[in-house]
Amino acid sequence: METAVVPTRFPADTALLEALHQPVWVFDIDRSRVHWANGAALQLWQAATLGELCARDMGCDMSDTVARRLRQYQRDFECGDARFSEQWTLYPAGHPTTLWVSFSGVRLPDGRMAMLCEARPQQAMPPDSLRSVEALLHTEVMTTLYSRGGRALYRNPAARTSVPEGSDSLQQRLVDREDLRALVRGLVANGHCKLIARVATPQGERWHDLSARLCRDAATGRQALLVSEIDISGLKHAQAQAQYLADHDLLTGLPNRNHVIKAYPQALEDCRRDGLQAALIFLDLDHFKRVNDSLGHAVGDELLMHLARRLRSVLGPQDRVARLGGDEFLLLVSDADAAAAARARVQALVALIAAPVQISQTELRVTPSIGVSLYPQDGQDIDTLMRHADQAMYSAKAAGRNGMAWFQPAMNAAAQSRLDLETELRRALVHGDIRVYFQPRIEVQTGRIVGAEALVRWFHPQRGMIPPDVFIPVCEDCGLICELGAMVLDASARQQVAWAAQGWQLKISVNLSPRQFFYNALLQDVRDILDRTGCDPRGIELEITESVLLGHDGRTVATLEALDALGLGIAIDDFGTGYSNLAYLHRYPVDTLKIDRSFIRSLDSLPALTEMIVTMCQVLKVNMVAEGVETAEQLAWLQARKVREYQGFLFSPAVSPEAFERLLRAGPPPPQ
Ligand code: C2E
Ligand code: MG
Ligand code: MG
Asked: What pLDDT sits at residue 105?
């Protein structure tokens, strides 16, 4: 930038300018029009009159780079006395005319800053030189020639507009000293260097992609440095945003598993260096799936956001929190005594999470199961510590949920055997080692078999028969339950058809896990099975537990009504052990209540409760099945109260279909 004294207001003395042979004109930057021109300029522009020239819209074919540059020059003129010179090619009447133009600031009568341009004709240059000058003038690539010492010798217009006032050297341009050192190292080693660096510009710090190469200054022959730069701030910003998205959970804004894997190893390393311990607190909400399934994902999401806020509020300044996915959260606490710090955090967490959350007129309460592993004693790396905290959390769940457990080495073995069980279960499903047994449902008054409950059995080649209480929860956890459930329903429907063909019209009841009930494809599966087997829907009853009805949202009603419309019966299993809210009998299409066997067992000591349930069912006219009848006395009690059906070892446990048929044949003949 050259500096010179410029006329501050136009016209100062146009007569003088008019007399010059050199073309001189004033360019109104804001309006992209010539404001005034002397005779030589009119000739240059091939304009008949000043009015005609001033009417031309010079902005219509002006590139963005030029427009931006002109605005920058305008700002420079405002800041001080600035003068620039550039080689320009103008196109009066479409013919290229190359000129050397010097320009400086001049104020228009209305006070706005314009540009006084003075042109000198340029000697004819070879076409390629002309083109290269033009290209350098218009390109957005910022090109600067520096002396070996880093002083700017030449900048193209794009580079010029990107340099803040008073910044003249490469050293001042690069914000980060380390970038300068890297640049110098690259140049010394290879003579060229590429670098992405933060640079100082009039718009503040920007990210530039720099290519530097050693060369010679064509004017002096001295060694020089040619640097070209592209502004990649937009790209950098997008990258940073992509990185943020990759490392954060969008719902809660908390860091995610990705971030944990990347950043936590360093946090552990910092602990080691500072002689601190750390605790990894793994938190999983109890029965969160039920909230999602029964109240919908929007409510589930909102609940998670509330909880994430609460989690944040117990953090100490050094603590970190992340959402690992679903309803799993992780806290990292570093402290001289990590166990004590973890205990304090868990205490605070449990209290905070226990407080009810109000979401669209529903008051929700959730509890967490928490597992804690300690660094360094329970693991040296983040993977091990996470696995161990997870195992501890699992054991807190197994111990009845809503609690906390510290990692113990024995948990490793338990986790391994659970994993083995899962693998073996998948194999068993394929190999047919899982079979459906049937326990007779007996009519109390006649002693006739009127139905059966399908109960699944796993015949393990080495371990023998594994009861469903052991493997159904594993199936529920790993999602196999839907596959297993479809298999049981299919086998039951086939059996129902086979027995009906032999004259035994039985109602087969099939257990449905909550997870299966809320599974999207349930209705389709049921329809497919009924179609495939040709089973009469009235021959199948689905057993659900009270917990399924708890959410009592639209979806539960819709599913139950759809099943009812298909003609299937609905039974409430283990009635009395849950919420025992008879109100839902009105709301839902329920056909049967199965009174839990604990009530039958306590008939001797506490008959009143069972009596009450029986009376209520009779009032409400719901079919009743007493479960777990083991003695003749219990049966007599049911007979006296006119309970319709029972199941129990007194008659038979669940048996294979072949054994069931023997029972059918041995009993009274089916009613005609
Ligand atoms: P549940 O639905 O309440 O099934 C009744 C359980 O009580 C069965 O245990 C049955 O063998 C047992 N039982 C029947 N009579 C007596 C008796 O007189 N005394 C005693 N002490 N027990 C009796 P099982 O077969 O071990 O099944 C346990 C649970 O596993 C079932 O409870 C059910 O919740 C679940 N289950 C079994 N099969 C399936 C299935 O195919 N799908 C699903 N989702 N769950 C199943
Ligand atoms: Mg059952
Ligand atoms: Mg039951």
From this structure: 93
As given in the structure block, the two tokens for residue 547 are: 């917990």
CATH 2.30.29.150 is right for the domain spanning 8-124: no
> What's the pLDDT band for 90 if we cut at 50, 70, 90?
confident
635 within ligand 1 shell (Cβ under 6 A): no
Q: Find the 441 Cα to ligand 2 centroid distance in Å.
A: 11
**Ligand 1 atom closest to the CA of 545, numbered from 1:** 34
* C-alpha–C-alpha distance, residues 353 and 345, integer Å: 12
Ligand nearest to the CA of 492: 1
Domains 139-238 and 438-455+477-666 share a fold: no
How buried is 307 (Cβ within 10 angstroms: 0-12 exposed, 13-18 middle, 19+ buried)? Answer: buried
Angle at 546 between CA 541 and CA 548, to 5 degrees: 85
- Pick among 3.30.70.420, 2.60.40.10, 3.30.70.270, 3.30.2170.10: CATH of 248-408: 3.30.70.270
Distance, in Å, from the CA atom of 517 to the CA atom of 551, rounded to the nearest integer, reads: 13
Q: What is the pLDDT of residue 4?
A: 39
Mutate to test the pocket of ligand 1, among 627, 631, 650 (most ligand atoms within 8 A of CB): 627
In angstroms, what is the span from residue 627 Cα to ligand 2's centroid? 9
Q: Measured between alpha carbons, how far is 27 from 37 in angstroms, rounded to an integer?
A: 9
- Residues 6 or more apart in contact with residue 538 via CB below 8 angstroms: 507, 567, 568, 569
Q: What CATH architecture is 438-455+477-666? A: Alpha-Beta Barrel (3.20)
Residue located nearest, by CA, to atom 46 of ligand 1:
511
Q: What is the pLDDT of residue 6?
A: 43
* Amino acid present at 53: L
Q: Whose CA is nearest to atom 22 of ligand 1?
A: 628
* 133-168 pLDDT tens trace: 888 888 889 999 999 999 999 999 899 889 988 888
High-pLDDT (> 70) share of the chain, %: 96
Q: Measured from the CB, is residue 456 less than 6 Å from ligand 1?
A: yes
Please give the Cα distance from 297 to 310 (Å, whole number). Answer: 20
For the Cβ of 17 lying below 6 angstroms from any atom of ligand 1, the answer is no
Name the one residue in this structure whose structure tokens are 């030189």.
Answer: 129
CB 361 within 8 A of CB 307: no
Identify the CATH assignment for 139-238 out of 3.30.70.20, 3.30.9.10, 1.10.10.10, 3.30.450.20: 3.30.450.20
Q: Six-digit token pair at 316? A: 């100490």
In ligand 1, the atom with minimum distance to the C-alpha of 455 is 38
Question: Measured from the CB, is residue 467 less than 6 Å from ligand 1?
Answer: yes
Tens digits of residue pLDDT in 416-448: 777 788 889 999 998 999 999 999 999 999 999
CA separation for the pair 307, 328 (Å, rounded): 11
Minimal-distance CA residue to ligand 1 atom 4: 455
Q: Whose CA is nearest to atom 45 of ligand 1?
A: 511
Query: Is the Cβ atom of 455 under 6 angstroms away from ligand 1?
Result: yes
Q: How far is the CA of 98 from the centre of ligand 2 (A)?
A: 95
Closest CA to 170 of 136, 140, 147, 196: 147
Task: Give me the pLDDT at residue 134, please.
Answer: 81
User: Domain segments of the chain: what residues?
Assistant: 8-124, 139-238, 248-408, 438-455+477-666
Q: What is the pLDDT of residue 487?
A: 95
Confidence check: pLDDT of 382 > 60:
yes
Residue 655 has pLDDT above 90, yes or no: yes
Instruction: Please tell me the distance between residue 403's alpha carbon and the centre of ligand 2 in angstroms.
Output: 29
At 407, the pLDDT band (50, 70, 90 cuts) reads very high
| Minimum-distance ligand 1 atom for the alpha carbon of 467 | 26
